[in-house]
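Rotation project, supervised by the postdoc (A.L.). Task for the rotation student: set up a whole-complex structure prediction and record inputs and outputs verbatim in this book. Inputs entered:
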Amino acid sequence: MEMRPHVVIIGAGFGGLETARRLAKAPVQVTLLDRRNHHLFQPLLYQVATAALNPADIAYPIRAAVATQKNVRVLLAEALAIDPAARTVALDGGGSLHYDYLVVATGATHSYFGKDQWAQFAPGLKSVEDALEIRRRIFLAYEAAEREADPVVQREYLTFAVVGGGPTGVELAGALGEIGLLTLKKDFRSIDPTNVRVILFEGTDRVLRAYPPKLSTAAKESLEKRRAEVRLNTFVTAIDATGVTVKTAAGEERIGVRTILWAAGVQASPLAAFLDVPRDKSGRVIVNPDLSIPDRPNVFVIGDLAKMMIAAGAQEEVPGVAQGALQGGRHVAKIIATEAAGQTSERPAFRYHDKGNMATIGRAEAVVATKSVAIHGLFAWLMWWAVHIFFLVGFRNRVLVMLNWMWSWLTFQRGARLITGPVGPLPPITTIDEHGDIPLPRAAKSVELRDLPS
Amino acid sequence: MEMRPHVVIIGAGFGGLETARRLAKAPVQVTLLDRRNHHLFQPLLYQVATAALNPADIAYPIRAAVATQKNVRVLLAEALAIDPAARTVALDGGGSLHYDYLVVATGATHSYFGKDQWAQFAPGLKSVEDALEIRRRIFLAYEAAEREADPVVQREYLTFAVVGGGPTGVELAGALGEIGLLTLKKDFRSIDPTNVRVILFEGTDRVLRAYPPKLSTAAKESLEKRRAEVRLNTFVTAIDATGVTVKTAAGEERIGVRTILWAAGVQASPLAAFLDVPRDKSGRVIVNPDLSIPDRPNVFVIGDLAKMMIAAGAQEEVPGVAQGALQGGRHVAKIIATEAAGQTSERPAFRYHDKGNMATIGRAEAVVATKSVAIHGLFAWLMWWAVHIFFLVGFRNRVLVMLNWMWSWLTFQRGARLITGPVGPLPPITTIDEHGDIPLPRAAKSVELRDLPS
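Outputs recorded:
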């Protein structure tokens, strides 16, 4: 029997899945591990959290993605430890795998900067479960507001805070505004959902720091049209069930808010620690120019878990986006395939091709920045739309997401407005009189549909 | 201010939602309570459990369903008690509602015939959460089988049991067979998913007792083509984490099976007890011919919570299907609207119009029975398809479900193969050698795609 090298890939995100696929024709055996059965298209996860898409629209079974690739075995398993000297990965359940090559692509998770007690009050957005929990909280807040008799508390239920002004924070804040202004507009009787208030907290002096300053300004203005206040140079110092405390140059302030979302810090997956090599302060592995780790040429780290430079000797880092992980996966697959085929040329250094960044703020509003272009508005939004559809895994998902978006565009509705999981406790109902009279909600005072870009 | 009667409706299933909608033009104020924010199209819930549809495809926000109906207020609330003398409904959170008319439409839940400890091993199918839990168990069983080294245990993971041969049991059993035979066919390396084994247990001498005997026979044969053994005259006497014990005329038998689904008994919602009127042994309220309850002409019970007769004086019961609830809702709405308008004619008795029954078994296979027709096969399946699309709430859902089904039909895939929630514990991985060699799965021995009706 032929002895093909065994390539173990941990994590089937953008980097890991791409590595496996690019090894399709290489003389290797691949084992692809993930603790989930699905590959997640994370750039659209905020759309699940805000009820625009279904989980299954952006999550694709890993097995189905490589079903016809005969040299890949998929295992639903969690890697608990790595022993680089013995070349083994220890798995949940007590088993372990031996590898000839190892690709670690387990990504990052939220970081609360040491304040882990904030997690329960301000969930972050990394998994399908996170997204469903956020969706539950958003729509439950309106239900609680409808039942609430105290106007101060009712106001707090209609207030939504987002911590962190990166792409995820901006996308969430824009969608939160539109849910009240457009989706739920007509659905309540005691509250007026268009009185929604969104607050986006950002520690630096602009949102979307990876973009040119003029796009940060445009994004801020677009958010403000959607009832989102953007508070720059503001740090969150405390979070609990009924509000946040923030610190600015002017001093501390307490803001009553019942729904808080976390889009601030990330930290590398803990698996990195077993590799026993230098890491940066957020825990990412500092990789060699070929993406292997020091002294272990058969171990590669790619994606959000790696601190990769855009080229050998460069000072600029590869951003933590899908493109970085995909390109890293391709690079590593090429090296492994070459060596498995018996060729012994020197390994090439990784070189990042920056295809630009894009983020969406809402209906007909996105920002797009490439080396040569910095635009926002309708055309940017159409570009965002096309690119995201194109990169979605699986033909069916593309079609369904496209239809969902077209439907939302036409109806202002969101297709997945489902509250699943625990409901309540909700405020007591004391506001309905003997005859169930239905007070008309206060008329919407501010942003109207026609003010939004159409 | 005009004094309109206050109609409180508990439950926004088929019966409750229909009552509210049919009161659109009546001079009443309606409060529609539900402990969920969505109306659930329960006839298709098994398709969520078997990954063919997304939860949001069959769950529609109650608020959106009545958003433009100005005399309806929707409350996300749980009714804890009813006081018919005081005409009040006590709600979670401590508040209560006064009513002039009350419509109780809270349906039914599973019954384990007093063996509530079985619930953890054999979940039933009533809510979106139930469906997602069943989906999780089904697909996790294949993952566990792929990891399992012991062939006996592996066999148990590839065995699925369904208790109860009514429509839900038959639909689940058919889909379970097709998941292994078609959907997962190519996706594993250590197991052959087409070796799936499904066992349907039914206590009486045929499945689908509400249908003509020849359709029961046809359903049984169709199930057998899908690798489902149908065990008639068989009672389950014990259920635990690794199997079931059944009793037949031949004696007791223990069967090792890791995934067990419950589709056997239902019992009426506990709210019925507060009405203080006679109930049948499954807890349903025995209603008057006009669907009100004895001595309380302003309280109606409809849907699965009521024991309704098909006409005044008839001995035949209205079956616990959507049509029964919808027609009950229409009847009650008409009575309330008439009386609210000041007319005092005698109340008409409810009369059920039997539009027939239908259940699907799998690709191109369904049974349809009306007064004049009893058919099965492709044409029945197309009828099932058309009727279910037609009755789905919301245009968007209809389109998406149609597309999902067409896609599944063409590709043999299921669109929502997502495992969410806890994963594991799974068996240890001890079956992969040093070089990760991938054994070819044993060739499928039995049912091939071409044997299935296409």
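Student's summary: Residues 225 and 284 of chain A are 37 Å apart (CA to CA).
Supervisor addendum: The longest strand of chain A covers residues 29-34.
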